[in-house]
Design goal:
Blueprint (H helix, E strand, L loop, with lengths): L10 H12 L35 E12 L2 E5 L6 E5 L3 E6 L2 E2 L5 E2 L16 E6 L3 H4 L1 E8 L7 E10 L6 E14 L9 E3 L5 E5 L25 E5 L25 E4 L4 E6 L6 E5 L5 E7 L10 E2 L2 E2 L16 E4 L6 E6 L12 E5 L4 E7 L2 E10 L7 E7 L5 E6 L9 E7 L2
Parallel strand pairs: 1-24
Antiparallel strand pairs: 1-27, 2-3, 3-4, 4-5, 4-6, 7-8, 8-9, 9-10, 11-12, 12-13, 13-14, 15-16, 16-17, 17-20, 18-19, 21-22, 22-23, 23-24, 25-26, 26-27
């Protein structure tokens, strides 16, 4: 959320933008369990302070596979060897064997709200290919369209199809499925992932501004009658827009949006499903002090803005942890500024990495989590192979064979034109 968007995530960025400008980018910038226990249990995190690094350093090497991108935020893999690179400014480019195709996969720049070239958390924020993309040719994007009324932008989930040749999108095929009015320019969410159940999961930020201020003392994250501050789950294969799966946790409950899968989230900046276990791992961007990794479960409340990671936020002390699911890991802004969620490694190239969750901070540090009993322990990654200035990490990607990719940008805004994509390879 923040890094870009995360930065893009504005809060992340809110704090970041400041840090970025003032502290010479000291840290800088941005933006998918049932039945919680009543007593507070913190099996995964230490509520008394920052979770320390507990595992040894591991080495990874980055191999550049695409470059010359404008503010890239995500990559996807259609299964034919191509790489689809999502640019914040509204273009999805196609890379074939490291060379960009002259015709973009999709260009929706005309549909976006006007972006600031220096810093912005809006834009083309997410892409998900249908699980049946090779046969139905459908894909889904999330972008920031112009607003209605007094809002800042309209978060828009849309379906497209590829043209007859299957190489690029048919621009006339757009089908808008869902729109959400955002009160401010930051914390827009926009991550899209299909789950192993075939349903589409969508992240929505809390509405922007510092401290989730747009819904009084409760905050949008805890307000079940808004999409803001949530992860949604919908079926895009039925109806003219979408239908709500009948097993969503809040179906039929008064004053609760049935699309909601999980809540209490600030600005989830990238989440992914572990191919081996089906678990949903998410990086949720913090406010002023802590970044967190969550395993998202059905109906889970992840605390914002009552808590920031494992710490009280509103109120600043003495808050109730009742019904709140704690993160599996956190780190403070002594180590970074805005989390970028990653993937559990299920590939073949990296010996000893299977089952480890790889993630990063937007400012460059990369980490891994490894499960030990009922807890997750954290270690740091030592990176070689990246080009100087590239490590502002905006996203990760996973190809069909389970190998992982890192998306980078050399600056904080949509005007930056030296973005790159790296594959993580054996050191």
């Amino acid at each position: 959320m923040k890094k870009y968007f995360r930065s893009l995530l504005s809060s992340r960025l809110s704090v970041f933008a400041l840090a970025t400008t003032l502290v010479s980018i000291v840290l800088v910038i941005s933006a998918f369990s049932c039945g919680q226990k009543h007593e507070v249990k913190l099996p995964h995190a230490d509520p008394s302070g920052d979770m320390s690094v507990q595992l040894p350093l591991l080495n990874i090497k980055l191999q550049r596979v695409a470059s010359g991108l404008q503010a890239p935020l995500y990559v996807a893999f259609p299964g034919n060897g191509d790489i689809l690179a999502v640019e914040q400014t509204g273009v999805i480019k196609v890379f074939k064997n490291g060379t960009v195709s002259p015709t973009p996969f999709l260009d929706i720049r005309s549909k976006l709200v006007k972006l600031s070239s220096d810093y912005d958390e809006r834009g083309l924020l997410g892409l998900a290919l249908s699980p049946n993309f090779k046969t139905n040719h459908k894909f889904y994007v999330y972008y920031s369209a112009p607003p209605t009324g007094s809002f800042d932008n309209t978060g828009t989930l849309a379906e497209f199809k590829t043209a007859a040749n299957g190489e690029v999108a048919d621009p006339t095929s757009e089908r808008i499925l869902l729109t959400v009015q955002h009160p401010e320019s930051n914390h827009n969410g926009g991550c899209l992932q299909f789950g192993p159940d075939g349903y589409l999961y969508i992240s929505e930020g809390d509405g922007g501004g510092a401290g989730d201020k747009h819904n009084g003392t409760i905050g949008n994250g805890q307000n079940m009658n808004t999409f803001l501050g949530k992860i949604l789950r919908i079926n895009v294969n039925n109806g003219s827009t979408y239908t709500v799966p009948t097993d969503n946790p809040f179906v039929g409950k008064a004053n609760m949006k049935p699309e909601i899968w999980a809540y209490g989230l600030r600005n989830t900046w990238r989440y992914s499903f572990d191919k081996a276990t089906g678990q949903l791992f998410a990086g949720d961007v913090g406010q002023d002090t802590y970044e967190e990794v969550d395993i998202i479960n059905k109906g889970g409340n992840y605390g914002w803005h009552i808590t920031e990671a494992t710490h009280c936020f509103s109120p600043a002390s003495g808050c109730s942890f009742k019904g709140i699911t704690m993160p599996i890991a956190e780190y403070s802004h002594h180590e970074g500024a805005s989390i970028t969620g990653g993937y559990v490694y299920n590939g073949k190239a990296l010996t000893g990495f299977t089952g480890k969750y790889i993630f990063a901070d937007w400012t460059g540090p990369m980490f891994y989590l490894q499960k030990s009993g009922d807890t997750w322990k954290r270690g740091k990654l030592v990176i070689t192979g990246a080009h100087p200035g590239d490590l502002k990490i905006t996203s990760f990607g996973e190809d069909p064979s389970g190998e992982l990719y890192v998306v980078t940008n050399e600056d904080t805004g949509p005007g930056a034109v030296k973005g790159a994509v790296y594959r993580i390879v054996k050191d």
